[in-house]
């Protein structure tokens, strides 16, 4: 057993409400470099003011969207299933939030499902589980021509025998896309409802736009609170200069520092959130800068499970990793660990009165302590509750962190030029 | 568009059957170094002969286990749910294979579920979905005292009001553990059926032992074929010296080479297999070697979905990654992409007669081509079918590759000393 860690720490509570900190971020390191922090702050302030990057303002522009969804929802009768047909930025955000907030979903609202992959096994299974009458298919694609998405939509149409000219087509299909896209024109032609993603909002930054808000609202997630959480994070950062974010971005992008950034999220509800983070981070920060290849590699882990997996590599492997822990102070559905002692297995007995959530949190804290002891770059995000408000804050926090890392690395965080080559090879081969 | 890649390639089919290659591994690189290959071969041959590492022989020792399971199964009436309570090596293997082979599960067999995490939300949801009468809880733990596993078991007992002294306890609980462990003694005391994991088989290498074979057999997976696949890989390697494996291990463990090893698996059925690979790789190969920290970092991706995510980082980010593609030539439940053209979205039209599986495979091939063009270290595994035989082969292939990398790095691939510190911190705090 090593000696107690000396925590070099930088403790901030930047949101207080109901007397409790709703979102806490502890950095177990100290990086304060006032000059560099100021330069990065100036860069993001300039980007924000330029209005070239649209996601910054999404939390404030939700009111009209929410009214539009509510009005449209009135006409959707007996809806049991909303199926998002979309991939990448068009599905990951909604999936992340639906999984994270499923336990507080309004009762009696439809199930949210996803058709993301042109995988015959998944498609068959999903279509087998639903009927047409009570299902709505939401085609989500910024460009409106994503090959996988449109191909899956065609399979769905043939499976249920419903086609654009049919009079009930608009009861079962709707679109979320860029205004004026091919999909928007298609929607107009056949009378489908369509919602727009602002043109200056990239797919992976679009979860607080119609791409996430439409399916989540339909399926009983409190998107009003979600957007309020995003707005609060925006305010904390842009109006109060939340310096933990600036400091994290600076240390992550220091040359020769940890280039693998692990998100260790304690609860199964974060599994899809991790996947959202992986896309956001990898696709935004893996870029050529002139002749140089730069990038930070994201890894998503779930605690306590992955203490029995990847943790060994963090503890004893190369020091090329930072780790951000996410944990929830007050978990839903908490249950006590019974005060039972099983004969011969007394070694696994613990103190009376510990709940499952407490044990999960204590596992996180013990793991934090052990890796800080090893000198691994570590920070900890604690949500008071896994609710829509905290989720919105968390989403916006990671979007900001991504933008800050991109600015610090002097790359364009908002394009994805590297994936076009494979698409071209594919289309050259399969084009009709 | 870059010019056509020059494929430096090393094409091997090492299993032929029914006139088709069932398992193909193409290396898009050339590393032949006869001397190093021979040294590594000698090392693994010595380890194999020593019998210190038990997983090598698991595929040959399944017959007795399978008979034992069959005999016991007779007495389990009306079984609808088998719930594995276990974590890490005690759950990931069974989960990987159940997901990969679900489409060929025998009909009328129980569902396989997992309680891996001391997460109150997941536990509540799982227990809500099942009843006691038709459920069997399989406690899987090598040591028999894993804190999470035993705590979850206690919650299950209290939830259903069933305890060790009850006369029907042995109808609903069974154990998979090391012979003589605390859990084995508990099982003996209360008349539970128990199966043993050989002492010289580590948890993350245990999927072809009782840890995987018991739940999979009960739930309708063809474990006879699974073990045959493993045995075939064993034979191909140890009797025929499968040199792609030796060459891959050598190039992965060359100093200064790619230290992030991406597994890019094309089909949703591989999601849990990726998680199994991540544990196997990270926990086996992240080790201190004297004062030096060594290790290879695994990343699991799903195609075609993650072409819209992590691919950008592979294409343009630092050249610190190798990529292994897995794809399935003939997929179950294949479906044609309808020969429909949607007005305004004609850009997404493809040739007539392409199926979903073909499009998925063509996406894999286009992606392989584009990353080989970028000079990324790439290889490709093609399964003719995703069946139990190929799955067994695949499992054994990755176990061998892990052992070879461990031997080449001169570390002990079979322990996990780094995770003990956190466990001790936790127990010091929570011990009764």
- SS-derived structural category of chain A: alpha/beta
What can be said about the biggest beta sheet of chain A?
Answer: 6 strands, mixed
Rounded Rg of chain A? 23 Å
Number of strands of chain A: 15
CATH architecture of the largest domain in chain A: 3-Layer(aba) Sandwich
Q: State the helicity of chain A in percent bands.
A: 40-55%
Largest interface: A-B, 122 and 121 residues
Q: In what order do the strands lie side by side in the largest sheet of chain A?
A: 1-4-15-14-10-13
**Average of the residue pLDDT scores of chain A:** 93
CATH topology of the largest domain in chain A: Rossmann fold
Q: Give the H and E element order of chain A.
A: EEEEHHEHEHEHHEHEHHHEHEEEHEHEHH
List the helices and strands and how they pair.
Two copies of one chain form a homodimer.
Chain A: E1 10-13, E2 16-17, E3 20-21, E4 23-27, H1 34-50, H2 62-73, E5 81-85, H3 92-101, E6 111-115, H4 120-128, E7 135-140, H5 147-160, H6 169-172, E8 173-177, H7 182-189, E9 194-196, H8 210-218, H9 223-239, H10 243-252, E10 260-266, H11 271-285, E11 287-289, E12 292-294, E13 297-303, H12 311-316, E14 321-330, H13 356-373, E15 377-385, H14 388-409, H15 420-430
Parallel strand pairs in A: 5-6, 5-7, 7-8, 8-9, 10-13, 10-14, 14-15
Antiparallel strand pairs in A: 1-4, 2-3, 4-15, 11-12
Helix pairs in contact in A: 1-10, 2-8, 3-8, 3-11, 9-14, 10-14, 11-14
């Amino acid at each position: 057993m090593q000696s107690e860690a000396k925590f070099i720490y930088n403790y901030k509570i930047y949101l207080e409400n109901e007397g409790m900190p709703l979102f806490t971020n502890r950095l177990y390191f100290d990086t304060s470099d006032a000059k560099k922090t100021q330069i990065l702050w100036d860069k993001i302030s300039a980007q924000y003011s330029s209005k070239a990057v649209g996601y910054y303002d999404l939390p404030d522009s939700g009111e009209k969207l929410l009214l539009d969804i509510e009005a449209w929802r009135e006409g959707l009768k007996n809806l049991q299933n909303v199926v998002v047909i979309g991939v990448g930025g068009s599905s990951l955000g909604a999936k992340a939030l639906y999984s994270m907030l499923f336990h507080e979903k309004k009762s009696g609202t439809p199930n949210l499902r996803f058709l993301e992959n042109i995988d015959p096994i998944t498609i068959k299974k999903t279509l087998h589980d639903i009927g047409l009458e009570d299902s709505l298919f939401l085609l989500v694609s910024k460009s409106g021509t994503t090959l996988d998405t449109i191909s899956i939509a065609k399979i769905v149409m043939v499976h249920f025998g419903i086609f654009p000219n049919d009079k009930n087509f608009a009861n079962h299909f709707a679109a979320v896309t860029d205004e004026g896209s091919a999909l928007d024109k298609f929607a107009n032609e056949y009378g489908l409802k369509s919602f727009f993603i602002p043109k200056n909002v990239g797919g992976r930054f679009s979860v607080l736009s119609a791409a996430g808000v439409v399916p989540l609202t339909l399926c009983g997630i409190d998107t009003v609170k979600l957007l309020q959480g995003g707005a609060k994070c925006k305010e904390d950062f842009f109006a109060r200069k939340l310096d933990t974010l600036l400091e994290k971005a600076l240390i992550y992008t220091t040359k020769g520092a940890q280039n693998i950034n692990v998100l260790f999220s304690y609860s199964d509800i974060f599994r899809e959130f991790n996947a959202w983070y992986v896309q956001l981070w990898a696709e935004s920060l893996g870029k050529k800068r002139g002749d140089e290849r730069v990038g930070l590699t994201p890894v998503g882990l779930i605690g306590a499970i992955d203490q029995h997996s990847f943790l060994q590599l963090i503890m004893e492997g190369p020091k090329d990793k930072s780790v951000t822990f996410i944990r929830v102070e007050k978990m839903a559905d908490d249950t006590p660990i019974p005060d039972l002692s099983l004969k011969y297995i007394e070694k696994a007995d613990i103190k009376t009165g510990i709940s499952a959530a407490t044990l999960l949190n204590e596992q996180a804290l013990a793991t934090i302590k052990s890796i800080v002891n090893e000198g691994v770059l570590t920070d900890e995000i604690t949500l008071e509750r896994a609710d829509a408000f905290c989720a919105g804050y968390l989403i916006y926090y990671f979007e900001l962190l991504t933008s800050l890392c991109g600015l610090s690395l002097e790359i364009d965080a908002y394009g994805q030029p590297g994936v076009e080559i494979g698409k071209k090879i594919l289309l050259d081969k399969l084009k009709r």
